[in-house]
Specification:
Layout: H1 6-9, H2 12-29, E1 32-34, E2 45-47, E3 50-51, E4 55-57, H3 59-80, H4 83-90, H5 93-96, H6 98-113, E5 119-132, E6 138-146, H7 159-169, H8 173-177, H9 184-199, E7 205-209, H10 217-228, E8 234-237, H11 239-245, E9 246-248, E10 254-256, E11 259-266, H12 277-288, E12 292-294, H13 297-302, H14 305-311, H15 316-320, H16 325-332, E13 338-340, H17 345-356, E14 361-365, H18 376-386, E15 395-399, E16 406-411, E17 419-435, E18 438-453, E19 467-469, E20 471-473
Parallel strand pairs: 4-20, 7-8, 7-11, 11-12
Antiparallel strand pairs: 1-2, 3-16, 5-6, 5-17, 9-10, 10-11, 13-15, 14-15, 16-17, 17-18, 18-19
Helix pairs in contact: 2-7, 3-16, 6-12, 9-10, 11-12, 17-18
Length: about 475
């Protein structure tokens, strides 16, 4: 699965020149992040970390990932509407995981009151690795699906141009022409715009719900600017602002500073540290409102690891997607082995197997955002500690995927230029909009390739481990 630039990797002078061109190209294209020292100001910015060269991706697996995305959109939407399935699946998790329990309580409270929201917008990203079999053939295996605050659709829209420039400088103009156009920021904005339009108020705004620390603001601005280009007004607010200034009228329309809000696009709210008591109250206010939430709380719960594990059980997909045998087959083909750690004989057996052979598995808590999974010796130690405790039910086990590494240079500000053995993860963005029971939009909206050195087990770009990349189809 090698890309056609093995020769270049050995030419130090050419690599140094290409790296210098690459960094300037990234700055010119707007592949930017704020700095750690000044995370809330744009006076000083730097390039977001990225690979010097595009990485080889098998074209058949790339197409498979795109083809199955509409199926995953339908599946996430079906789960979000299935109260019994969420209740049954998360029953053991909510006893031991306070964060999931609080989300679930809000979900139930909103259903009891009756949903004010009639338009539903889903923006997700399904992440895969290429598992290398014993015979050397690669298979597409899903790592997870992110149903809240799926990031880097903006910056990745600008990364292919950088890699195209690098390839030209290295004398690979023909190869540069083969890099695929990719603009998730436009695709994500089209979903938000459709939801805004169906909400039905020309004067209403789209609210980006953002974190206190906003290093990744340029990624969000790419999507935001696409909305401004459609003459849709965007405001940026934090949970704290919603708590202090948000209100609902009698029809449960949401107002911020006197402006009606049509769509709430979450770029925050996916990990426990995002919440104090005020923020939980703000979240409840948003969920009770008529505004289109992206995601609503049921869709956030649909993205939990426990749900992912339950989907791998025989018969579950068929129940959630009745009469869609082909979609079920396409989805199931991407699943790696997933195992429940619920209390009982089944959970005991798999816990014992993982303690005996920890390198076969990944231990996953119910968390988004990268940097949370456990591997190897650390996995064994944690499982030994909790094997007889209900606490183990807040995790799932997954077969460890073993991709074929490739050599590349990872460009990071203030870091030495050195070649690394790397593995990549492919994400496909999905967007869907449903009005009542009618699906009015369902599409794949672009891709994201992230690459990391093999010594780093876990973590995304924002977590500081993986870097942005561009697929070169082989």
């Amino acid at each position: 699965m090698a890309a056609p630039w093995e020769d270049v990797l050995r030419d130090e002078a050419a690599i140094r020149e290409a790296a210098s061109v690459a960094v300037d190209a990234a700055l010119l294209e707007g592949v930017l992040m704020r700095t750690e020292g000044e995370p809330n100001a744009s006076d000083v910015v730097n390039y977001a970390p990225f690979t010097l060269l595009p990485s080889a991706v098998p074209s058949a697996l790339f197409e498979q990932a795109y083809t199955v995305q509409q199926d995953f959109n339908l599946l996430v939407d079906a789960i979000s509407q299935n109260k019994e399935f969420l209740e049954h699946t998360l029953a053991s998790t909510i006893k031991v995981d306070d964060f999931t329990a609080r989300l679930f309580r809000i979900h139930m409270q909103v259903l009891e009151e009756g949903l004010a929201q009639s338009v539903f917008l889903g923006i997700n990203r399904s992440d895969y690795m290429f598992d290398c079999g014993v015979d050397g053939t690669a298979a597409l295996k899903q790592i997870e699906i992110n149903t809240i605050a799926a990031s880097f659709g903006g910056l990745t829209s600008r990364t292919a141009a950088v890699h195209g420039q690098v390839l030209k400088v290295l004398g690979k103009s023909k190869e540069a022409l083969r890099l695929l156009p990719n603009n998730p920021s436009k695709g994500l904005a089209s979903g938000i715009a459709k939801a805004w339009e169906l909400y039905g108020s020309q004067s209403a705004v789209v609210m980006f719900l953002v974190e206190e620390v906003q290093r990744n603001i340029f990624d969000q601005r790419c999507v935001e600017n696409e909305l401004w280009n459609r003459n849709i007004r965007v405001i940026r607010k934090r949970f704290r602002d919603v708590f202090e200034k948000g209100s609902l009228d009698d029809a449960r329309r949401l107002y911020m500073d006197g402006q009606e809000v049509a769509v709430v696009y979450y770029r925050e709210g996916y990990v426990p540290k995002n919440y104090d008591q005020q923020n939980w109250e703000a979240r409840l206010l948003l969920e009770r409102s008529r505004a289109v939430k992206c995601p609503d709380i049921a869709t956030q719960l649909a993205g939990t690891k426990k749900v992912q594990q339950e989907l791998s059980r025989p018969g579950t997909l068929e129940r959630l997607l009745p009469g869609r045998a082909e979609a079920v087959a396409r989805i199931r083909a991407t699943f790696a082995g997933l195992y429940s750690l619920d209390m009982g004989e089944e959970g005991d057996k798999i816990a014992a197997a993982a303690i005996a052979d920890p390198n076969r598995f990944v231990l996953k808590p119910q968390r988004e955002g990268g940097g949370n999974n456990l591997y190897g010796e650390e996995l064994r130690q944690v499982l030994e500690k909790i094997r007889d405790s209900p606490e183990r039910t807040s995790y799932i086990l997954m077969d460890k995927i073993k991709p074929q590494p490739a050599m590349n240079y990872l460009l990071r500000a203030h870091s030495p230029l050195q070649v690394s053995e790397c593995i990549s993860e492919l994400g496909i963005f999905g967007v869907y909009v449903r009005q009542g029971k009618e699906m009015v939009m369902n599409k794949a909206a672009g891709h994201l390739l992230r690459t990391k050195a093999i010594e780093h087990a876990d973590g995304g770009v924002a977590a500081g481990v993986a870097v942005l990349d561009t697929p070169y189809l082989v």
